[in-house]
Specification:
Two copies of one chain form a homodimer. By secondary structure, chain A is of the alpha+beta class. The first copy, chain A, has helices spanning 18-28, 39-45, 61-66, 73-81, 97-110, 165-173, 191-196, 204-207, 210-213, 240-244, 278-290, 303-312, 316-328, 346-361, 371-378, 386-392, 406-422, 459-478, 498-517, and strands at 57-58, 90-92, 113-117, 136-140, 147-151, 156-160, 177-178, 214-221, 224-228, 253-260, 262-263, 267-275, 297-301, 336-344, 366-367, 395-405, 432-440, 444-454. Chain A has 19 helices and 18 strands.
Chain lengths: 531, 531
């Protein structure tokens, strides 16, 4: 069953190997975990629903608890401490666009705020209800989870917006197709959520971001139904798809999503290459993407992430052998690990692999074959479970991500890491920080930084530490040519930083769009735009 | 010097070979040209300017004549007959964003309508002034034509918005780079115009549409300056770039454009393949693009276009030999010509060529080498001059274009061609119609239809015939899953058809955006949105 207070399936537990524990103990210090509350304790706190009666709205405490929070570290601390703050007043589970239309009408007639809920995997506060006089109804799209149509000639599939990643892929694969969209949250997040928050998947180099995959669909708004037709490309004015992408529930509720799919590839494999230094590794990655080498996936860990991953992997014997070999080839301290994938016809994969190996050789790249790549592929969606394992040992872990142009990658990366590393100095607490680059464009790339720190002796103080880390770094990002989010969206947590990125007139444009479709402020209020 | 009443440089004339004349005579009948008016005659008609005095605004008749019309067939007929209707009241030639700001202030203070003018190549009435009480000032961006900055690491170039195609490429090529954006209008159209009208270039398979190339820039609006920062990709809400792309002057005047550039490729070549039938040819093209073969350019002429191109090429001896060879290989009547390009590293080009030849062989493709491809490349920007040559023989020529999903390509193509072919039946006039597919996506492609008919014995009747052809076909396009424009934009000519494509709520979104930035209706009124 799904964990009510953390990530994923409660039958799946990731254990941190002894070597990993020792490594964290060295880097951050030994830690004492905080105690968790039970689901029953939280349910007992849930206040009476303020919703006017509607048989489509469930007011049961457990439904409301399970829909109150996403997966940010602040959400995690709320779920573990029981200090939820606000609960939605009810949850609806529509099964059709008509059901959604009825909910919109109900909301309008009764001044009820609506929060669209896909997989509940937001790490930016998209689905958290806010305190106020309006009753709040969370609309869980999970029952609209079917493949509705597949046009094999045009390679377009139509899905119910609440279809989660595994159901997207299994329904397509049964017919010989794939969407190829694999965000870290794949196990739980939904196709409608991907569109609403402009997500990006691990194989974006081949399949593109959700912007490239989203071909059209249906959005139910307070002004009526917005049907976006599928057209391969158009110069007929601003693209309505692009207004829905990233709209985060402010314009309407996405009920149907049409996406561009691909026949299952003939070949796919993942590989690992090590580089003796960050400079060489980063330059090689930039050259690969600027050379338009047909890779499907590329990820470059900086030296600290490389070291951390090798330490946390367990298998000290095997890792020792690998490190000896790399050392002999010139990659010692400061070495960086690059993981890459090739997908397509056999010829395309062979050529891409050859091009990659040739180009990387110029930068001292040491190819280590498919073994570590296969390991990455096998574990690609299990990383979020690590938070549970670390939590039980007394560590809090969170991530921050952005994207910037190549000329600014190093500067911004150092600013982010340095700020996180030193932010708790006054508290005499260490923060372990590491980064990878994981989505590549000719113009720049994304930066994905993970940071680990010890929980304090109270939830309040732990939350305060996180807020310091998160807020100060978010400010650094937007003031230094980074986007406030490359793949997690804005939600409520990033909303204060959005105006720096978009500018006054950019916010005017977005605000007027929300206002046009939702003059009464019922649609996911305070998300994306702070008002 | 630039032709005042037609396309391009008046020193360049394309002659239609005898065989071409004979071909048209057979298909449409022999024709009698209409007489042209002179520039002096038109200048003499220009009324007094209604603009309040401003030294930045030139009221000279010739400037106003030269900025009154674009390049649609209706524009052509106006320029040749002298029946212009409306002239702008003046033309400004700003040299900086500050100049543009001053013009905006002047327009706001004096209720003056502003029309942004790039290369004046619109074929949809973007830059035509409309009749009304507001004085109209055309803002010619042509003096802002420099490469301002090149970031080699991030591969981003910054240009003045008025930079025309040849100056974009020559300034970049001097530094070893290319933008790779080659619309048919390349010789005259500008980088700002490409953004404002969402254009697409002949090598969009490699370089992408302008949407993929436009990285950010500066737009001067009545509400202030909108600076769009360059960020490789972002999930931070709706993308402001996408609101400017296709905004056609309704939001503001683009003054600076930042684009994603590429180092000059090591290799580039163009090739031609013939297919025995349309069905096989179209399927091969679809498979090539769905297979993600690294082509840079692809164009497929249907049987009538193939026949027409071979007839109009001249060189009957050489063409005769080619046709004999193709006939022996099984491609006779109904054969279709596919032109394709490969661009990139030598390995990429070699692989793409091999993949293409292998795949096409399955569909009866007959590869004829580089000769015809090189010819296409040499003449790629001269096609618009053909209108002048045909006009002198008494023929009017125009094009229509759209894009649709693969499952609808044939149906829509037949509807378009049939409608054009039969539209003048009552007048007992023949229309020669042919089509090519020229921008390919996994989901579908663009359809580009050319039609030739005889001019009538008056300009009025010729215009009326064109209106019948254009209006009826535009209606067919939007009512049958086509976009009203894949690459020419909306302007005033396509604006009546946009609501069918975008729907009521799509128009609400676009309209509210325009309204937000331009409540007084000064910015290119009646373009894009009819109000």
């Amino acid at each position: 069953m799904r964990r009510w207070n953390g990530w994923g399936d409660d039958q799946f537990n990731l254990e941190l190997p002894k070597e990993g524990q020792r490594f964290l103990d060295e880097r951050v210090g030994s830690a004492v975990p905080l105690a968790d509350v039970s689901l029953e304790q939280v349910c007992a706190q849930v206040p009476d629903s303020r919703l006017p009666p509607n048989p489509a709205c469930i007011g049961a405490a457990e439904d409301r608890v399970r829909h109150a929070r996403g997966q940010s570290l602040a959400d995690w601390l709320a779920m573990r401490s029981g200090d939820f703050g606000v609960f939605p007043d009810g949850v609806a589970y529509p099964e059709s666009s008509l059901d959604v239309q009825a909910l919109l009408q109900y909301a309008e007639e009764n001044d009820v705020a609506l929060i669209p809920y896909g997989g509940g995997t937001s790490v930016a506060g998209h689905i958290n209800p806010v305190d106020g006089d309006q009753p709040v109804l969370t609309v869980d799209m999970g029952r609209m989870n079917r493949l509705i149509d597949l046009d094999r000639e045009s390679q377009i599939a139509t899905f119910g917006a609440g279809t989660p990643g595994p159901l997207v892929e299994s329904q397509l694969r049964a017919l010989g197709y794939t969407l190829g969209h694999f965000p870290q949250s794949f196990e739980l997040s939904t196709i409608g959520g991907w569109v609403a928050s402009r997500s990006s998947g691990q194989q974006s180099l081949r399949y593109g971001r959700i912007e490239q995959l989203f071909a059209g669909g249906r959005i139910e708004t307070l002004k009526g139904t917005l049907d976006i037709p599928t057209i391969p490309a158009s110069s007929a004015g601003p693209d309505i798809r692009e207004m829905i992408l990233g709209s985060e529930g402010r314009i309407g509720l996405i009920t149907e999503v049409k996406v561009r799919v691909t026949p299952l590839p003939a070949h796919e494999s993942f590989h690992v290459m090590f580089f003796p230094s960050w400079d060489k590794a980063r330059t090689a990655c930039r050259k690969l993407v600027q050379n338009r080498t047909q890779l499907s996936m590329l990820r470059l860990s900086n030296a600290t992430e490389t070291e951390t991953q090798l330490a946390l992997a367990g298998h000290p014997g095997m890792i020792g052998l690998l490190e000896s070999y790399l050392g002999l080839r010139g990659a010692k301290d400061g070495k960086c690990m690059m993981t890459f994938g090739v997908t397509g016809s056999k010829r395309q994969c062979r050529n891409a692999l050859t091009e990659t190996r040739e180009l990387c050789r110029e930068f001292g790249g040491i190819y280590t074959g498919k073994k570590l790549g296969e390991k990455w592929a096998a574990k690609r969606f299990t990383m979020p479970y690590l938070r549970e394992a670390l939590w039980k040992l007394g560590y809090a872990v969170d991530t921050l991500e952005t994207a910037t142009d190549w000329d600014n990658v190093d500067k911004l990366l150092n600013q982010i890491e340095e700020n996180l590393r030193n932010q708790l100095n006054e508290k005499k607490e260490l923060v372990h920080v590491f980064t990878h680059l994981s989505h590549f464009y000719t113009q720049g790339c994304s930066l994905y930084t993970t940071y680990v720190f010890r929980v304090a002796d109270s939830y309040e103080e732990t939350l305060a530490r996180w807020q310091t880390l998160k807020t100060s770094t978010s400010g650094i990002i937007v003031n230094n040519r980074g986007t406030i989010s490359h793949q997690h969206g804005v939600g409520k947590d990033h909303a204060p930083f959005l105006p720096v990125e978009k500018g006054e007139l950019g916010m005017l444009a977005i605000g007027s769009l929300c206002q046009t479709f939702d003059p009464a402020g019922l649609m996911n209020p305070q998300t994306l735009v702070q008002k």
